[in-house]
Design brief:
CATH class of the domain at 279-474: Mainly Alpha
Mean pLDDT: 76
CATH architecture of the domain at 279-474: Alpha Horseshoe
Number of strands: 11
Shape: flat
Largest sheet: 7 strands, antiparallel
CATH topology of the domain at 279-474: Leucine-rich Repeat Variant
Distance between the termini: 121 Å
Length: about 800
């Protein structure tokens, strides 16, 4: 058997048709008698590891120093020799074995289809590989044999069959024990190469033998003696002494216990012991991954079928008498259990989570997520994430049933919000994870496919009633103009939540961690504005939330100011006049414009975001906002000339003003200013009698009066609608009996006269229209704020007069 070594570089051809350097080493050409073929082995120059081995493929000779070939998986490879003499010698050896002329540039003809079919038809019992005797003196030969077949799928298959049929693995492991007793390092190094190569054969039948209870620790022992290491690793010591198997609840099924041990050890071999596969070996361990996968499926199925075991787990998890250390182990077990379930098929995973739900996983989480132990809370959060990702509807259904059984402060969603608010991690990693879960729960998109069509309405109503005030508590606490007293906080959140906020929320808004928390809350609120419409609109109006959010425009943390601006931008982007009137009434552009002016000439993200907000208003031609901005802020903004946004707003404003002026002038023409044709007609009609002239004159006067009243009424009604006037009604009751007050003592709601109002009898009196309201028998004064658009008597009054005038 000849063996010639030469210094080479190994290259592979990448997708861009460029050659990538895979390392430098020494090549040997070996004739394998039992395989009747030539094998090229490349060992790394630095540590002696195999860089590559290839058996009996079609080689080609190029440029005096290159030998090139293609792999079955479409890899093109090349060996570049340092010396031409070395390349020629290896080429001659290849050609000699394959019976080809060295003068040719290629050694083999491509295998035809009939030959491939002939290989496939070889029965499994027809072994092409004859194994050497399993002896210490033949270990090097065995290692070369195993390494040489890795490049050929057919020969890998035949070698695997031979190893299984002859019980060769157990013989090799017997030699391992002998070598270890004799401290035969050379033999141990060969056994490392052999066992590693057998794993790369990627055959499940071999894994069943190697990972059995009586073999797996010897397999681990073989893999400790890597030739590249000065001293062997102590993997067996770790697996037997350091790694402890904890049974939170005693497992009586011996098969289940054995399967858990096996899965852990095989996972350890894959993740820790075996080196990261090279580009040539990445598919060699696919069956090992499948072996672990199916083991996990089997473990989950066996545990799921053991109802007594799982019932005991959840009973101890929720038992107040359970010790903290025990509860921590139980939570970690459930977490790992859920992680294993991800390997199940969708149908089986559905059954798995339904089983957990029936056993009370959600009430258990409600308890453990509120505990002080950080490890328990982190594990509970992971379990909660598995449940939310699997079925948000299941979690929502449970949550909506809670108010009937518990207080607001211990609702599951409020517990989750509390954990988000009080995350002790400076980077708020847990808070970010919980915020994502909350967004999934309140996302209407994943409510649409539910069989219960009312889920969206019911859950959002529940969330805004019981949970939204808890979510916004840190925001409101950190944007209050005056320090919030605990008495005021109690009107919005429960006593326990006050304690949470006092510990976690009432911090300086310039604190970085607090700023990050507020940014997360604003991101969630911005999501609500975009997806919830009615519910969030009502909440913003009732809490004056946008005003409080815009206080954060003064934060020294630019990212927080941008979050506040993004919240306002999302509101304006809806182009909802209800929001627009709210912004105008509250003068809520002022903090934004102040931030723009304070930013000065700095061209940064904040500047661009504010400019984009006003550009959107201009492009979308939101007339009410344009008029408000120009009327109130144009003098401060007219000096900004590096963009044309504000001049464009002014231009839009002037155009609209001109249109309104023209429209108003068209209706306000004097009824007596007639055109020339009409005047000629009157002058030519001299034959009409005096009575007819008087009648025409009276009709003209009536028309003029009616038209004038119509315009007065039209202007008043338009003004009130545009300004959304809010008026106050003072109601005073009688002191002793409410009956007399109900009869005679009602007070009128005075409407401020924006323009002269018209009385019901069409007189020109300047008295203000009053709307009589029934008194109330309550012995105190009340102030009621009533929106004009829901006041039916006022609307009826205006409509009646408009109709009457139109009929004229």
């Amino acid at each position: 058997m000849s063996d010639t070594r030469r210094r080479v570089k190994l290259y592979t051809l990448n997708e861009d048709r460029q050659w990538d350097d895979r390392g430098t080493g020494h090549v040997s050409s070996t004739f394998v008698e039992r395989l009747r073929g030539v094998s090229l082995l490349v060992r790394a120059e630095s540590d002696g590891k195999f860089l590559f081995s290839i058996f009996d493929v079609s080689f080609s000779y190029s440029q005096d120093t290159l030998i090139v070939w293609s792999e079955a998986d479409n890899y093109d490879l090349a060996l570049s020799f340092q010396e031409k003499a070395g390349c020629d010698e290896i080429w001659e050896k290849i050609c000699q074995v394959q019976g080809k002329d060295p003068a040719l540039d290629i050694t083999q003809d491509p295998i035809d289809e009939s030959e491939e079919e002939r290989f496939e038809e070889i029965p499994e019992t027809s072994h092409l590989v004859e194994l050497p005797p399993c002896e210490l003196s033949r270990l090097e030969e065995i290692a070369d044999l195993v390494t040489s077949v890795l490049s050929s799928p057919i020969r890998r298959e035949k070698l695997a069959l031979a190893l299984v049929s002859e019980g060769y693995i157990k013989k090799l492991l017997g030699l391992f024990r002998v070598c270890e007793d004799l401290d035969n390092r050379e033999g141990l190094h060969h056994l490392y190469e052999i066992v590693r190569g057998v794993l790369f054969l990627n055959k499940a039948a071999l894994f069943e033998v190697m990972f059995s209870d009586d073999c797996i620790m010897d397999v681990v022992g073989c893999l400790e003696y890597d030739p590249a290491l000065v001293q062997p690793k102590r993997h067996r010591e770790f697996l037997t002494k350091t790694a402890k198997f904890k049974e939170v609840i005693p497992i009586t099924d011996s098969e289940l216990r054995q399967k858990i041990h096996q899965t852990y050890r095989v996972q350890y071999i894959q993740d820790i012991i075996l080196p990261t596969p090279s580009v040539f070996e990445e598919n060699f361990l696919s069956t090992l991954t499948s072996f672990i996968f199916f083991n996990k499926v089997e473990i989950v199925s066996m545990l799921q079928e053991d109802e007594k075991f799982l019932t005991e787990v959840f009973a101890q998890l929720t038992d107040e008498a359970t010790e903290d250390s025990k509860r921590r182990e139980l939570v970690n077990f459930v977490k790992e259990f859920c992680a294993f379930s991800q390997t199940l098929q969708p149908q089986n995973r559905d059954a798995f989570f339904k089983t957990l739900a029936n056993l009370g996983i959600l009430p258990a989480l409600e308890i453990v997520m509120g505990m002080d132990d950080l490890q328990v809370r982190a594990a509970a959060t992971d379990i909660f994430s598995y449940l939310v990702e699997f079925s948000p509807s299941m979690v929502r259904e449970f949550v909506m049933q809670e108010p009937q059984q518990t207080d607001d402060d211990v609702l599951l969603i409020n517990v989750v919000i509390k954990q988000m608010i009080c995350d002790s991690d400076p980077e708020l990693g847990g808070a970010v994870q919980l915020m994502g879960l909350l967004r999934t729960l309140i996302d209407p998109e994943n409510m649409l496919a539910s069989t219960n069509k009312t889920e969206k309405t019911e859950f959002l109503s529940f969330f805004y009633k019981y949970c939204m005030h808890v979510l916004t508590a840190p925001l409101l606490a950190n944007t209050a103009h005056d320090k919030i007293s605990k008495g005021k906080m109690r009107t919005e959140v429960s006593h326990n939540m006050i304690q949470v906020m006092s510990l976690c929320c009432l911090l300086c808004v310039d604190n970085f961690q607090t700023a990050q928390l507020l940014a997360l809350i604003l991101e969630l609120l911005t999501f609500c504005v975009e997806h919830h419409t009615y519910h969030i609109k009502t909440y913003i109006m009732n809490k004056d939330l946008l005003r409080r959010v815009l206080v954060l425009m003064n934060s020294k943390h630019t990212f927080l100011a941008l979050c506040a601006l993004r919240f306002m931008r999302r509101i304006i982007g809806l182009k909802d006049e209800y929001y627009n009137r709210y912004i105008i009434k509250g003068n809520l552009f002022e903090p934004v414009i102040n931030a723009l002016l304070d930013n000065g000439t700095r061209y940064n993200l904040l500047n661009s975001a504010i400019i984009e907000l006003f550009e959107f208003i201009k492009v979308e031609d939101i007339k009410s906002l344009i008029a408000h901005i120009v009327d109130n802020f144009y003098k401060a903004l007219e000096s900004i000339e590096y963009v044309q946004t504000f001049k464009g707003l002014k231009g839009r404003y002037e155009q609209e003003k001109d249109r309104q002026s023209q429209r108003l002038n068209r209706y306000r023409r004097d009824a007596r200013s007639l055109d020339e044709d009409e005047e000629l007609w009157f002058n030519d009609d001299d034959d009409d009698d005096d009575g007819e002239a008087v009648e025409k004159s009276r009709m003209e006067d009536d028309f003029s009066d009616s038209y004038g009243k119509y315009m007065e009424l039209f202007e008043t009604f338009s003004f009130l609608l545009q300004k959304c006037l809010i008026f106050t009604v003072s109601v005073t009751a009688g002191a002793a009996n409410g009956a007399n007050g109900a009869n005679n003592n009602g007070k009128a709601a005075a409407i401020p006269p924006a323009s002269p109002a018209v009385t019901p009898n069409n007189s020109s009196s300047s008295s203000v229209k009053t709307v009589a309201l029934p008194a109330t028998p309550v012995v105190k004064v009340m102030h009621l704020e009533i929106q004009l658009f829901i006041n039916a008597p006022v609307i009826s009054y205006f409509l009646a007069h408009i109709t009457a005038i139109v009929e004229l």
